[in-house]
Amino acid sequence: MTAAAVEATQPEAAVATPSLARRTLSVFARNKLALLGAVLLVGLIAFCFLGPLIHHTDQVHTDLSQANLAPGSAGHPLGTTDLGYDMLGRLMYGGQTSLEVGLAAGLLATLFGTVYGAVAGYFGGWVDAAMMRITDAALAIPALFLLVVVAAIITPSKPVLILIIASVAWLSPARLIRGEALALRSRDYIHAMRLMGGGGSRAVFQHIVPNAIGTVIVNATFQIADAILYVAYLSFLGLSIPPPAADWGSMLSSGITYTQVGYWWLIFPPGIAIVLVVAAFNFIGDGLRDAFDVRLQKN
Amino acid sequence: MTRFLIKRVGQAVIVLFLVSIIVFVLLHLLPGGPARAILGPTATPDSIAHFNHQQGYDRSLPVQYVQYLGRLLTGDLGESYKLNQSVTSLIGERLPKTLVLTGLAIVLAAILAIPLGIIQAVRRGKAADYVLTGAAFLAYATPVFFLGLILILVFSQQLQIFPAEAPQADTIGGILSELPALVLPVVTMALGIIAAFSRYMRSAVLDNLSEEYVRTARAKGQSEARIMARHVLRNALIPLATLLGLYLPTLISGALVVESMFNYPGMGLLFWNSAQGSDFPVLLGVTLVVGVATVIGSLITDIAYAVLDPRIRSVS
Amino acid sequence: MTDKLLTIEDLHVEIASRARTVHALDGVDLDLAPGEALGIVGESGCGKTMTALSVLGLLPNGGRITGGRVLFDGTDLAAAAQPVLRDVRGNTIGMVFQDPLTSLNPTMTIGAQVAEPLVLHTGATKAEAWRKAEETLRLVGMPQPGERMKNYPHQLSGGMRQRVAIAMALVCEPKLLIADEPTTALDVTTQHQILELIDELRDRLGMAMILVTHDLGVIAKRVDKVAVMYAGKVAERAGVRPLFAAPRHRYTQALFAALPERAADESQPLATIPGLPPSLVVRPTGCRFAPRCAFATDECRAAEPELTDALDPGEGGGEHAFACFHPVDPETDPVAEVVPPAPEAAPVRTDESLLTLREVAKEYPLNSGPFARRKGAAAVSAVAGVSLTVKRGETFGIVGESGCGKSTLGRMVVGLEAPTGGEIRFEGQDITALGRKELRAHRREVQLMFQDSYASMDPRSRVGAILREPLVIQGIGDRAAQDARIAELLDEVGLPRGAVDRYPHEFSGGQRQRLGLARALALSPALVVADEPVSALDVSVQAQILNLMRDLQRDKGLTYLFISHDLAVVRYLADTVGVMYLGKLVETGPAEAVFGTPLHPYTRGLLDTVNEPDPTAEPTGTPLGGETPSAAAPPSGCRFRTRCPIAQDICATTEPPPAEPTAAGHRVACHFPLVPAGPGAAGA
After folding, report:
1. Which parts of the sequence belong to the ABC transmembrane type-1 domain (chain B) (predicted)?
2. Domain B88-315, second-level architecture
3. At C347, is the pLDDT very low, low, confident or very high (cuts 50, 70, 90)?
4. Are C120 and B223 contacting, i.e. CB atoms less than 8 angstroms apart?
5. FRET partner for C147 with CA separation of 20 to 30 A, picked from B93, B215, B295, C485?
């Protein structure tokens, strides 16, 4: 070997590097805020879905004799609502709706938005221009207004609510992924692959998708957070799934009537629950964004 | 610049058309279609059929759309079911009030968010940065109505400093004369914007501080304070115009919630009341106006950006 | 030492990031008399820029001076408080940075930026400052300075921006100018103009200067003395002539030997410096250069040599200090000795033509993006009718300044872009007319080596997958055969086989170029188009890559289309050369003919502009003035006429046809080629 080859003989060159997935995970784990988010989320999910197994309550039949009990009453650690539902149980029950609808709508929106954006970005040209003007127009009408109009026309059930929210929420991931696809398409490694004779499907599935997946996952967490907020807003405006179903937003909404008389337990538990879950998803998203950034993984 | 303007305005016009199509489609999604929207929920099937024929609603959709567009251009948005007034005049009364509320919120947000963002950037990694970052995350995660509720509980019911109801005056002057009553709605609306803008300012200032032109300014002997004021701030603020444009829909959504919470007689409250009462002409009219306002608003912010940034301005 | 303007004593600087602390400077000693010019040279990461920045206290985030003194005019700037430093900055010490675009504020007018130091330091009124700024801009050769002051940086060319940066540094008439790689981001001809300007201003204003650069050619004729830095220390310090004539430190010696300009014979490989500089996270023991030094002994590895003063045996008897236990003995140790032995066989060149370009053109429409247009033209003519022939087994070098169309030409040859006119024939076949299947097969024959190999590799793929990809796409071999081929490729480019499990970002710049070359060779192509493959590398690593390319060409009978702005590199590597200017091939022919007796005034000007790494070289000819016009509105007739010293009326009206006035194969497109008049007469 010539002297030229010595440059390559770095001492650490013999050790294989851990996979990207594992390093992504370890960067994420080092981010305290992201870990806090993950713990919060797991806790909230356990509370909503496993909690009712321990704390049995009736969330279907009203019991006006038990209405508006203060926290600490016998069998009602968080008191009762104006219709006599146990507050703690209702918080779990309502949380199920909020989480289910938020998760499903957020994921659905991300899925559809990603495909739409990838198609626009990959084809470019006038296809892209036409598809993007459509999203521009839909984005111009504030999401909440669209949601309210649609919810006013149709009385939503859980699946309908998911569809309604997803039909509005897909716009921002579409725009984001389209930008990402456009940028990735002109990277030098795509050029290099084309020069080897590789075609479009290889470009998309071997290079563009794996490199865009981080952006998609990060965006999905933000979309879920937004979808949970949308559910809350719709319920607050009285346009969500009708009673006896409940979610955190509608619980808050019905609690407002009693702020004058100081029934704080009707407002704060669902309000804080919304804040916690939305913050948790945002923390996770932020942590994932850092973790997917290859540049941060150098050491 | 001229070509940029032409292109950008052209885009806005296309988007406006598409917005009108979206609202048109929503109109046809209504139970009973536009006839019921105009004749009201009590109309009989016969009268609906008659109306449809008379108004051309039995013709093909493209023809109907052209007619719809023609009515829009003459300012005809239909009649309210409930309020016995044309939608156009209803919106004409309410829109300025919403603009006042949103305008005040934006001004308040800018006044607070810009220095907050700068403080965070300058004190990056210190306690102030962490506290403000945490607060911004919290503010972002808090729904506007929950925030409003907390503010009402604390400042109206406990401390009794500000009233829980917004000014009810008919005129803008009247509204502005009741400043204490404006405080809670404006603050509620502004808090989310403050969180978003201060986050932006933090990262923009940090980005600019690591630019080489800042090093050049230091090499000239400029003090850190004047580097911030003369060099960094201008470069960080210009893109804020675009951010404001992107943020408009969120802002208007916020107005919807805040107006209905504080009973502020703007377009948001009108919209909410119409949603409760299934007053579809008003609902769709407001939706259209809000869409048009957003398109025009982001057009203005884009042009403002181009005018403020010499790199775009001077491209002939 | 009272006569010194600046004295740096035992300067230590640390740069702390979250994960680690780098000892960037570890005991640097330098001094400078009033009016004197000092050059600081070294490869990237050696601490030369840190030295310059610490004088003004402008270290990057996390950086701080941990020891030593920086005495300027009697004040220790290393210990000075911010107000004291601010009073010096831009006032008595001016600084010019590398990139004139990013170092100017994009949203502030030129005038305001140049006037800023005056307002700060002299208490001048705005009007006074504005007047003085205009005067200074005129001084730095800015045409119509009054008009330009209302412009923003992006409206000026790179060269003009650097003039603005110089004006900013000089507007308060400092005693010391620090220039950190002031010409690295500029084209050759602009580089020359800026260096001349700095020289002239220094004479006129009588100021001292520190010129920091990686380019030995830049300092050769511009400074009085030189400090060579390596791994955060000064390795050698001497007057410029003694240093260039007889370097003593083994590192300096190796640095010179790696220069393509200094290659004794173009058929010989370049001397290289193996390995990489130390990372400086831990302080190395012993001589910092020892791990890469061919002359290192146990003594070098155990103890650190001190920078010792010794009188130079050569001219002047000035100071010549070096830190080396086994210095070069100028009497018995000529530089050429570090050059490795000659290769066994000469490269295989043939007369068979492999690639033929006929009237190839590429135009880009201007209205594609909202901001990407200039006025008055419908298209940018990037390549305008280029014809050339590349023979199998040769290296065809294409040189030219940025924007001349050389990269576009390369991208058309590999098929990344389609020409808008003319034809490209590879082995007689027109590649623009190939069908999908034929094109796929053709891909095996022509491969591209990118300038930035890192960007050309998927950051999420391991090296093994990156090298396997071309084999998978072309369906070559089963997995085991592919593994064997990958191992073979890594051997060929001198990388360990364990590299397959690593990611591209874990490799150094030179290693990435090796990877890029390995991938280009995976399909055993006949032609490799190399687009600036060494321009981002330090000179010692550049030599490694150039040698490797030569070795592989010899072993595999490769043909290279080698695109570069660096005349020395092309001259060293190429058999045939084409010179491009504004989309046109102005001259082509055998390398020795084109570089030895250039026929086109542009080639002549380029050669006269090059900064030879030789302080004793006599200035020759007339370097090129002016700037390249926009390709959106190229001049009529001969595109070079606007900068040509011998242009006449016909040049504006008629495009010069290619001709071969001296020898077959040496073609030039010029109405008045510089044909040597006869044996007695000198060239033009």
Report:
1. 95-301
2. Orthogonal Bundle (1.10)
3. low
4. no
5. B215
In sequence order, what are the residues at sequence separation of 6 or more whose Cβ sits closer than 8 angstroms to the Cβ of residue B40? B81
Crossing angle of the two packed helices A158-169 and A87-123, in degrees rounded to 10: 40
Where are chain A's structural domains?
43-49+85-294
- The highest-confidence range among A19-23, A148-152, B300-304, C102-106, by mean pLDDT, is C102-106
The per-residue pLDDT of chain A, averaged, comes to 81
Q: What percent of chain B has pLDDT over 90?
A: 20
Q: Where are the alpha helices (DSSP H) in C106-235?
A: 110-121, 126-139, 145-148, 158-170, 188-205, 216-220
Residues in chain A: 299
C-alpha span between A8 and C618 (Å, rounded): 40
Q: Which of A9, A15, A27, A196 to mutate to probe the C interface, most C CBs <10 Å?
A: A196
Helix, strand counts (H, E) of chain A: 12, 0
Instruction: Please state, for a pLDDT cut of 70, what percent of chain B lies above it.
Output: 94
Rounded-to-integer distance, Cα C163 and Cα C157, Å: 10
The confidence band for C133, taking pLDDT boundaries of 50, 70 and 90, is very high
Q: Count CB atoms within 10 A of the CB of residue B73.
A: 9
Tell me if chain C has a CB within 8 Å of the CB of A185: no
Second CATH level (architecture) for the domain A43-49+85-294:
Orthogonal Bundle (1.10)
Nearest CA in chain A to C465: A206
Average pLDDT over residues C241-259: 89
Phi, psi for C561 (deg, rounded to 5): -105, 105
Give the mean pLDDT of B242-250. 84
CATH 3.40.50.300 fits C6-223, yes or no: yes
Asked whether the beta carbons of residue C102 and residue B238 sit closer than 8 angstroms, the reply is no
Regarding pTM above 0.90, the answer is no
The pLDDT score that the predictor gives to residue C158 is 85
The full set of domain ranges for chain B reads: 31-76, 88-315
Residue A6: per-residue pLDDT: 39
Identify the CATH number of the domain defined by range C353-536: 3.40.50.300
Give the HSE-up count for residue A285: Cα atoms under 13 Å, Cβ half-sphere.
20
Domain with CATH 3.40.50.300 in chain C: 6-223, 353-536
Token reading at A175: 């725009």
Q: Choose among B142, B143, B249: nearest Cβ to A139.
A: B249
